[in-house]
Design a protein that fits this description.
The structure is a single chain. The chain is α/β, with parallel strands linked by helices and 297 residues long. It has a six-stranded mixed sheet, sandwiched between helices.
Length: 297
């Protein structure tokens, strides 16, 4: 059995920028909706999950903005025509009997972390579909990440082995320590100025964690070069702030029983009608992938 957790905003955002400005017969831009469901139906065919849920960002500031006002401040504002496509996507998902989850003050990443950790049955494999590298911190024996690579048509499956290779031998959970040191320009997480991912990973391979790096600094040995040591000491507070900003907050209570996410059937006629009105004729034939889950074994 498997459980597909969809990072809906990330998938739609990727589709919006990767696809031409497709419009429906009324002239409204619908490329993000098309790309989202094109990718979803492809993954449903490939993974055949028994359980599916779609997770969205909630509009407005999050607890991370309260801790660091400049969080994501450098991002270019996404056009309104992208946000106008969100309600229709959620409407179609509900007709597909796929729960839509969002929570004010939290990002989709946090909720995805909560959902992944709530799956207690070790026989159920969790697959997170996203375009966000940060979610690789969730990877373990039970959780894998399907990462979008090019547009919304090509993906790479990251299990523990492949994630370790991507991180130069580090463990998935050490991503937050990499961000603590190197920061993240896409989210405007500062890190330690002058330290990039390569140096960060080398330090972590040697010492194991951000905490242990600073514990070693207190011993005043010569294992860390003076210039690097000075940077680390000067920006200690900023390093741990960056680590906290990169860490998923998973101590939340989500009322989402596993049974609620089961693929038990859906209203095909209404979904087909909406796809027809949007001009998604090529997706209608692929709705057969939405059939009730049938085990492959």
């Amino acid at each position: 059995k498997s459980f597909l957790v969809i990072d809906a905003n990330a998938l739609m955002h990727r589709a919006y920028y990767a696809l031409p400005k497709l419009t429906n017969p009324q002239g409204q831009v619908v490329n993000a909706i098309y790309g989202f469901f094109s990718c979803l139906l492809k993954i449903l065919k490939e993974q055949n999950p028994q359980y599916v849920v779609a997770v969205f960002d909630s509009p407005g500031p999050t607890f991370r903005h309260q801790e660091y006002a400049q969080y994501k401040a450098t991002r270019t504002k996404t056009p309104d025509e992208f946000y106008a496509q969100l309600p229709k996507t959620k409407e179609i998902l509900k007709l597909m009997n796929i729960p839509v989850v969002e929570k004010k003050g939290y990002e989709a990443d946090d909720l995805i972390g909560v959902i992944a950790q709530q799956v207690q049955d070790p026989q159920i494999k969790v697959f997170v579909l996203t375009g966000d590298f940060d979610l690789l911190q969730l990877v373990n024996k039970q959780v894998s990440v399907i990462l979008l690579r090019t547009g919304v048509s090509q993906t790479v499956l990251y299990n523990v082995r492949r994630t370790r290779e991507k991180l130069g031998g580090l463990e998935p959970k050490q991503i937050i320590d990499i961000k603590g040191l190197a920061g993240d320009t896409s989210d405007n997480i500062p890190g330690v100025p002058g330290i990039g991912p390569k140096t960060a990973m080398a330090l972590l391979r040697k010492f194991g964690s951000l905490e242990k790096i600073y514990q070693h600094l207190e011993k005043e040995t010569e294992d860390i070069k003076p210039a690097l040591s000075k940077k680390l000491r000067t920006f200690r507070g900023q390093a741990f702030l960056s680590q906290r900003l990169a860490t998923l907050k998973t101590d939340l209570n989500l009322d989402l029983p596993l049974a609620k996410c089961s693929r038990e059937g859906y209203n095909r006629n209404k979904v087909e009608s909406i796809f027809q009105s949007l001009g998604f004729k090529t997706l209608i034939a692929r709705l057969s992938y939405m059939n009730v889950f049938h085990p492959l074994y």
